[in-house]
Amino acid sequence: MEISSKENTQFFSNNTILPIDRSSFKSESSASKEKQSCCGGVKIFLGALSFVYFAKALSGSYLKSTITQIERRFDIPSSLVGVIDGSFEIGNLLTIVLVSYFGAKLHRPRIIGAGCLIMSAGTFLIAMPQFFMGRYRYERFPSTINSTVSISPCLQDKSQTPLSALEKSQAKINAGCEKEAGSSMWIYVLLGNLLRGIGETPIQPLGITYIDDYAIEEDAALYIGCVQTLAIIGPIFGFLLGSLCAKLYVDIGFVDLDSVTITHKDVQWVGAWWLGYLIAGVISVLAGIPFWFLPKHLPKPESRKDSSTSSEQSKFITEDNREQHKSYQQQVKIAEMAKDFLPSLKNLFGNPVYILYLCASILHFNSLIGMVTYKPKYIEQQYGQTSSKTNFVIGLINIPAVAFGIFSGGLIMKKFRISVLGAAKLSLGSSFFGYLLLLSLFAMGCENSDVAGLTMSYHGTKQMAGYEQGLFSECNSGCVCSQNDWDPICGENGITYVSACLAGCQASNGSGKNTVFFNCSCVGILESPSRSSSAVMGPCQKGNECPKMFLYFLVISVITSYTLSVGGTPGYILLLRCIKPHLKSFALGIYTLAIRVLAGIPAPVYFGVAIDTTCLKWGSKRCGGRGACRLYHSSTLRYMYLGLTLVLGTMSIFFSTAVLWVLRKRSAPQDETLSANGERGTCVTKTRKDNFVNSDHLIQATYWPEKETRL
After folding, report:
1. What is the spatial distance between Cα 106 and Cα 585, in angstroms, rounded to a whole number?
2. Which pLDDT score, from 0 to 100, does residue 431 have?
3. Which of 463, 487, 457 is nearest to 475 (CA)?
4. I want to staple 603 with a disulfide (CB 3.0 to 4.6 A). Which of 83, 296, 342, 370 is the partner?
5. Alpha-carbon distances, residue 94 vs 18, 87, 107, 199, 700 (angstroms)
6. d(C-alpha 649, C-alpha 581), whole Å
7. Which of helix, strand or coil describes residue 621?
8. Edge-to-edge strand order for the sheet containing 489-491?
9. How many helices and strands in the chain, by DSSP H and E?
10. Quick one: the chain helix, strand, coil %, rounded to 5?
11. Which of 270, 265, 276 lies closest to 242 in space, CA to CA?
12. For the whole model, what pTM was predicted?
């Protein structure tokens, strides 16, 4: 009976546990449903944000692909093109602080949607000058234009030119001067890019922090990596679109294409640059639509309900995080939010990790922005490639390497569960090896094209004086030529001449693209007297070694792009994990502001000024004044372009090393504390180790709704 009694007691005691088990099962089930709901909402936002990143990246990269087209169309130097490119960052500068600080406390998805509409309006504005200014005019000698009047290229006497032709030519010049005000239409391109910058402002600080707030901590790095990777598809399509439009003549649909006497290989060729902006504007409008239907807040993951920050943040944020519990009203007045602005700014700039990483990023982005902005021009001028081929190569080969690198960085962070310290190491190593590879590009350049009077004398020697005196020689002394013209021809001796007149050509046959010049006295200097000294339209091709060097350049450029991009996602995680949670949007906004002001705006300008110093032959405007550059000194351009990039990159590596040193110094005491506490028991040590990687429980024990959006 005693045994039976004991069994009954045990039976009933076991039964009393069953309701608890069911309750636990229900709580786990509800937690699972909430997790699924949370993940579903985050993934919808993730898809919408990825499309917006695609849209803004497409329009931004398309602008980069049209840099040379805009320069030629408006006849402006590279430094002014740099100002136009930097106007996007100026637009960000005007609104970034207000949007990032106050936007985090308002309806973030709808603010992003409004930004997309503004961005599309700016993109449409960029294309407008094409419809209001006159048709594009390029430099061509009258004999190359389809005409029944035959004119000698070498005007030994102006009287040999028919009066009607001279009058007609002068009338065109006068008409061009009357419409010279049309060349100032580049201001609309600048204003449109400025408007694009204003519209793009909320996308990064509000979009990234929205994901980081409502995603599970260990998935945040992968999600951010996915957004950035999918955004790379935008530049791929942007450069491919630029390649397509560069092959189409600028005035396609407005003029008879048979009357165009230049090809897309000519340095004066301008493609249909405006067409891509119309397409990009439509895509930006479509990208903003989903954000008007997304909620202001999503359910928090279970792992973040008990605390508002990650365990790793507690390791590097050493300030006291204990705050009084306050009950916030549903609506917060702007004045109440503004009171905390200066204290928040002081708190942010008091974080040495944030400041050092900010300095490293500013220098790093100075290097990258300058390099990317003028990369198409560098390839065209250094390797003699067309704008269309250059954009195609960048879009199809270079950009996918960047996408793969960014995704690899996010995948490494998730797979190996790399800490903040590990992220700093990965970011530093990526920059170091990337710039080391870039150093090898100094040896992969082409020699200057042989241009008589600019890179070599008319007698074949390389030593040259100033080009203004060098363009004239005994062989063309009997001709009436202008040193300002740029209408290159290729002599049968393989040397390029600035114009048929300066080559001393006495006769021509054919018209348009098929014009052939004969009896060119300057070409005959280096030829045997028995051979006819003839020349054809267009410049000569670069040396035989140049195509091989271009291939080597592409291979190293792809590897370098991948290596530098691996550190992108770890850098984002380092930035997010080393600041207080309620300052994340504000910190990203200040970070973006600093990059815009100190890198995005000045880098294209001073890179453009440096590139302008390597110009050998400037074009001239119809009413006088310097136009766009026609020919650069290849070696000087290579050293200037790559040298600036490497100097800035090397300086950024020093600051990245300082970031790593500070993080190691801060993590050492925490490791000792965890080690001492770990001696209390194996179970406790294991639990804390798991919490260090996966939880958000070590800074504040309490969490209240909407803390991330209310100070």
Report:
1. 12
2. 93
3. 457
4. 370
5. 63, 11, 20, 11, 35
6. 30
7. coil
8. 496-497, 489-491, 535-537, 516-520, 505-509
9. 25, 7
10. 65, 5, 25
11. 276
12. 0.74
Which structure tokens are listed for 594? 């600093």
Task: Give the relative orientation of helices 634-678 and 375-383 as an angle to the nearest 10 degrees.
Answer: 140
Q: What is the distance between the alpha carbons of residues 270 and 251, in angstroms, rounded to a whole number?
A: 9
Closest by Cα among 344, 347, 315 to 667: 315
Backbone angles phi, psi at 490, to 5 degrees: -110, 115
pLDDT confidence bin for 125, thresholds 50/70/90: very high
Of 248-262, 328-342, 571-585, least confident by mean pLDDT is: 328-342
Instruction: Supply the CATH classification number for the domain 341-447+545-664.
Output: 1.20.1250.20
- pLDDT tens column, 384-418: 888 899 999 999 888 889 888 888 998 898 888 88
More confidently predicted of 115 and 105: 115
What pLDDT is stored for residue 557 in this prediction?
Answer: 93
pLDDT of res. 656: 93
Q: Is there a contact between 281 and 117 (Cβ–Cβ < 8 Å)?
A: no
Within 8 A by CB and 6+ apart from 661, the residues are: none
Q: Residue 694 and residue 312: Cα distance in Å, rounded?
A: 9
Distances (CA, A) of 118 to 208, 364, 682, 687: 20, 29, 58, 50
Residues of CATH 1.20.1250.20 domain(s) within the chain?
38-155+184-293, 341-447+545-664
Cβ neighbours for 217, distance < 8 A, ≥ 6 positions apart: 301, 303, 304, 310, 694, 695, 696
- pLDDT over 50 at 162, yes or no: no
Instruction: From residue 283, give the alpha-carbon distance in Å to each of 235, 238, 274, 277, 348.
Output: 13, 12, 15, 10, 36
Burial letters 393-413, b for 16+ CB under 10 A, else e: bbbebbbbbbbbbbbbbbbbb
The single residue listed with the structure tokens 């080690």 is 675
Instruction: Please name the helix (run of DSSP H) or strand (run of DSSP E) that holds residue 506, with its range, or none.
Output: strand 505-509
* pLDDT band, residue 112 (cuts 50/70/90): confident
Burial of 651 (0-12, 13-18, 19+ CB in 10 A): middle
Does domain 38-155+184-293 fall under CATH 1.20.1250.20? My reply is yes
Phi-psi region for residue 435, left (φ > 0), alpha (ψ -120 to 50) or beta? alpha
Determine contact, residues 570/427, Cβ cutoff 8 Å: yes
Which of 10-14, 63-67, 537-541, 621-625 reaches the highest mean pLDDT?
63-67
* pLDDT over 50 (residue 152): yes
Q: What is residue 438's three-state secondary structure?
A: helix
Tell me the DSSP string of 106-162.
S-HHHHHHHHHHHHHHHHHHHHTHHHHS--------GGGSS-S----SS-S-GGGS-
Please tell me whether residue 692 adopts helix, strand or coil conformation: helix
**3-state SS string over 573-607?**
HHHHHCCCHHHHHHHHHHHHHHHHHHHHCHHHHHH
Model pLDDT for residues 471-511, shown as the tens digit of each residue: 888 888 778 887 777 888 888 888 888 888 888 888 888 76
Cα 652 to its chain centre, rounded Å, is 18
Interatomic CA distance for residues 396 and 237, integer angstroms: 9
Residue 579 tokens read as 């600041």
The one-character DSSP state at 171 is H
